[in-house]
Amino acid sequence: MKPGQNKHRKHLNVLSGRSAQIHLSETVAVIFIFFVLILFGAIFYYKFQEVSFKEKQQELLASRAIDTTTKMLFLPEVSCTKRESEAEPNCFDMMKARHVAELFKEFNQTYFELFSYAKITINQTYPEPFELVVYNQEPENWANKKPTFFVVALKDEQKSPGYYGYGQVKVEVYS
Predict the structure, then answer these.
(1) How many CA atoms lie within 13 A of 162 on its CB side?
(2) Which residues contact 134 (CB under 8 A, 6 or more apart)?
């Protein structure tokens, strides 16, 4: 071997060692960036799921509010009847409604299974405004309250035969 070749080989070994260090550093940098991108993706996915979950909760609460309102509207305990037993649509008999609050308290578990945590109020707006709370089961801790309203006729035979008022049923459900 020639004396100059040995010196040249040492120089190549030093260069290939530096080259290997550069490649190793590049690989570490690429892996680091890859994991940072995965972390950002995971954070984005978590936030997206959190917003999606809250929207689903609101949707379910609105659905429960509509279901509770529908149950109240067709409840025979407060419905107006024509002659024998035919129910008048969208009408509450106020004589029945005044006493249904006592019935709801007496059979609390049965009506709780029907309405759950809710507040049901009958508001008459015409001819004389008044408010009657017929059911009120408010939870100790609640985060959201969803009210729904429905217009009804309010029949009150106690005032005079054929007397009708105009009002609304307000159903507030809690979550």
Answers:
(1) 0
(2) 78, 97, 100, 101, 104, 120, 121, 122
Q: Which helix (H) or strand (E) holds 11?
A: helix 3-73
Q: Under DSSP, is residue 114 helix (H, G, I), strand (E, B) or coil?
A: helix
Facing residues of 145 across strands? 174
- Domain residue ranges of the chain, discontinuous segments joined by +: 1-175
Report the sign of the C-alpha dihedral through residues 55, 56, 59, 60, in that order.
Answer: negative
Using one digit for the tens of pLDDT, what is the confidence trace for 95-146?
A: 999 999 889 989 989 999 999 999 999 999 988 899 999 999 999 999 889 9
* pLDDT confidence bin for 1, thresholds 50/70/90: low
Q: Residues near 64 by Cβ (< 8 Å), separated by ≥ 6?
A: 116, 146, 173, 175
